[in-house]
Amino acid sequence: MSAILEIKDLYASVEGTEILKGLNLTLNTGEIHAIMGPNGAGKSTLGNVIAGRDGYTVTAGEVLFKGKDLLQLDTEERACEGVFLAFQYPVEIPGVNNTYFLRAALNAQRAYRGEAPMDAAAFLRLVREKLKILDLKDDLLKRAVNVGFSGGEKKRNEIFQMAVLEPTLAILDETDSGLDIDALRAVAAGVNALRDAGRAMLVITHYQRLLDYIVPDVVHVLADGKIVRSGGAELALQLEEKGYTWLQQEDQQVLESS
Amino acid sequence: MAALALAEYVNAELAAETQSLSWLHDLRTQAQQSLQAHGLPAEGSENWRYSSLRSLLRKPLSVSTDVIVDEQQLLSLVALEKNDFRMVFVNGLYQAQLSLVPVDIQISSLATELKQQNLSAYFTPLPEAVDAGFSWLNASRFEDGLYIKLEDNQVVEQTIHLIQLSVGDVLSHGRHIIDLGADSSLSLNEHFVDLSGVAAGGLLNTQMHILVGKNARMDWTRTQALGSKSMLVDRVDCQLSKGAQLHCTHLDVGGLWIRHDFNVELQGEHGFIQVDGVVLVRGRQHTDFHTRIDHQVENCTSRENFKCIADGRGRGVYNGKILVQPGADGSDSAQKSANLLLSPHAEIDTKPDLEILADDVIASHGATVGQLDEDALYYLRTRGIDVPLGRKMLMRAFCQEVIDRVKAPVAREQLAGKLDQVFTQMEIT
Ligand SMILES: Nc1ncnc2c1ncn2[C@@H]1O[C@H](COP(=O)(O)OP(=O)(O)OP(=O)(O)O)[C@@H](O)[C@H]1O
Ligand SMILES: [Mg+2]
Fold first, then answer.
1. Are B247 and B107 members of one domain?
2. Is A115 touching B (CB cutoff 8 A)?
3. What residues have CB less than 8 Å from B3, skipping those under 6 apart?
4. Mutation target vs A (from B374, B379, B402, B420; most A CBs, 10 A cutoff)
């Protein structure tokens, strides 16, 4: 078992404000980790730092992806290396056809790996196969990227892209938010279909419910820019029941008894 | 004749008339007098304030002589099927051997047609505005062009291509007449293309006169893909009768210095004009688009949608004049100018210019200047698409709205294909 992602004592700021404050996290191959935590804790910031968004400055620490320094790479190089971020708020791109976009992305990644571009027919077969898993409406493919998609359709579209691109590391930022039960199952099916010994996934969520479908190996709590607690799947249940204040109270007790 | 600077043509003597048509002789003489009196549009002219002619006037240009272009060369420039009808002009002169003309309608070269009938009505009156220099230059010197006359009820199913090809440092004066009878219909795809290469470039000074008869319809695309040294001064005058429809979409993706004057007179009730455009200016390209839509009578509709992308040191100008004459109640006009300004050295000048002299009128207009959407670019990059490709995809996407408005599927695909090609070949960092 080797590490896919190693984050060591990571500090990052956005527009001069420090958001990540000494974050440590290791994902091994085959693992799914869940990250929970209060609003504004820095969960999406972590996703964007890993994906390489401009304006997110790492001030200390390191991020290794398959042992390589990820922070040296451009956003698109990270994607081509196998990093995928499913956005909390997927971006609408008027005028860019969804299928065209996805084929351009796949072929960019293939070119990076030295593979020949996939022709239209082969791509269509691939798309059909992945569509079945996700139960996504055909006509969404013919429309502009995310334009006019419902909240749930946007999230399904993220997972559909993930299914086609088959990343080594997928970060799912609140992909379950705003999904109806069927959509949640479809998204979970997409994730589980990709679950294998060679990959890892980081699932950011506010709800324990998702974790009934995607059973995580580890659950972390991210608060105020760092991981404050890690545990098994049962941690999510406890959090659901007692809320984040429970953690703070526990910490307080630990502090007092010491 | 040796090459002259453009400025010198103003006073150059007219070539001896080959045809002894007295009306044409009078027209040319009168045009030349106006040209000599007022010259080409001067620095102070409001209509030309963003398009200084200074660099043009010094440009050495020779007059058209016969140049042989073979079919292979033509097909490398314009995507044509073997059986597509086409009227091909090289440096303004008709090329019968490259053309393919339908037999069941009146279509010919203007030079031929002038020998057949008196066309003086299409040429008079000459424009009188002091800045009409290029029109007089054309009227005094034109030799050839496209002539189409559709009878009432004539519907031409197959698209006709008008191809204007420029070769070398030549000054040409294409003159085109399209006269559509009542209830007729025509699809025209126009192409400005170039074989000059990167070292040379001509000046095409074209004039077009279009009459769309009662309830007639014209669908028209204009693709300007001239070479990097070529220039175009293009004036179109359209007159629409009652219930007439004209849909026109421009793609300006080439050339060095381009000026369009697109004038429309809505002369009968329920006329409809749509004039759209995609303009791309990079390097030192300059494209100035002036439209003038004159609502002369009640209940006509005009629609304009222009998109301009300016990068490098490119400059895009759009001036959209809407004139609603007294009594033209029920006029409905909408005008949109959206622009992408991608470089600190590029420039966009966009101006709606509304003169509304009637009461019951809808006239909306909007102009925006923006940059590429950084969030969208980030999204593309997180999927593996690099910055140059991502920027090209977003630029191409910005143009799509204009393409979507093209009604005829074949024309729409052709314009989309041309844009795809332009952005695929574009070098960008
Ligand atoms: N571009 C930015 N400029 C300034 N502050 C920012 C920016 N992006 C994020 N922040 C701040 O960073 C903090 C962490 O934001 P982040 O989006 O990472 O939180 P989160 O844990 O994902 O919250 P949520 O659960 O609500 O999605 C917040 O206080 C937010 O306001
Ligand atoms: Mg978030």
1. yes
2. no
3. B60, B61, B62, B169
4. B379
